[in-house]
Specification:
The chain has four helices and seven strands, in the order βββαββαβαβα. By secondary structure, it is an alpha/beta fold.
């Protein structure tokens, strides 16, 4: 899975460059996220600008990371396409995750910039 990262303050902004987070890349994606957690990163902003589809495997990765960070870190999401947002609403994950329209909005509302 192709991923770009950058840091703003203590938040690691993770931008998947592929248009899908599905079973074919989920374990690789999870491996990257857990490696960063193991290296001490506890605040993530997942920029989903390029992602047009997430299946149950991809959603499972996000939930797993959220549970791992519970109480000691956070996973924020932003720039979600209408298709992906439909999945989040259908599964009610839009009530679980902090979701923002853009990277800038997420950073502004979470103590950065």
């Amino acid at each position: 899975m192709r991923i770009e990262t950058r840091t703003e303050g203590d938040i690691l902004i993770v931008t998947p460059l592929d248009d899908r987070i599905d079973a074919s890349v989920a374990m690789d994606f999870k491996g990257h996220l857990y490696a960063w957690i193991n290296d001490g990163t506890l605040r993530f902003l997942l920029d989903l600008t390029h992602v047009e589809f997430i299946d149950s495997s991809g959603l499972s990765v996000l939930i797993s990371v959220l549970k791992t960070l519970a109480g000691k870190g956070e996973l924020l999401l932003c720039s979600i396409s209408n298709t992906v947002m439909s999945l989040f609403k259908l599964t009610r994950m839009d009530r679980i995750f902090k979701i923002y329209d853009s990277v800038e909005e997420a950073l502004k509302n979470n103590g950065q910039k």
